Amino acid sequence: MPPPQATMQLHWSSRSPFVRKVMVCAHERGLDAQIERLPTVVALTRTDRSLLPRNPLGRIPTLVLPDGGILFDSITICEYLDGLGEAPRLFPAPGPGRIDAMQRHALGTGFMEMLLLWRGESLRTSPDPAIIEGFELKRAAVLPALDALVPRLEATPYDIGHVAIGCSLAYLDFRWPEFGWRAAHPAIADWQAGFEARPAVRATAHIDA
Known about the structure:
The chain contains seven helices and four strands; from the N terminus they run E-H-E-E-E-H-H-H-H-H-H. The protein has helices at 17-28, 74-82, 96-122, 129-155, 160-175, 186-196, 199-202; strands at residues 8-12, 35-39, 62-64, 70-72.
């Protein structure tokens, strides 16, 4: 059943880091009760044909607005939600602060995209060793970069860049718990612990179902 105050519908999966980014933003803005979640499964090898009239790319998240309008791509949905409600904004005003936030968002979201592609390749019957090695090299480069970024994260008001980075690391834990990356990257590990303690993050945990 939809929440009592639901005015929007979100094509949703508990496994998607991009959907989680949207839901973290919704919770941070106090809008989660206004969103009815529509479980939707999509993958490179599986297209939900019922989604195509709303999003011809067949991707989630896809948000249906109260007037029937459609938004897709997680960053578009997050910025739309950021214009609703009364909580502190997650997208800084135009200027250097916004450029900084969007650059950090690009790093976190790019990491999510890479992890999703990595998982897809690893699930193939015969994964390509060269492709897997490329993903491993990128992971090995991203984590030290995030470690070095911690002073900036701590000095900057919580924004969409923080959300994207936190959600990307949470997805790494969700799909590759055996990596044990924290010991080698203590600064971003400590920061991530604080991110995961936020109510909006606890409320949107990945579920492999």
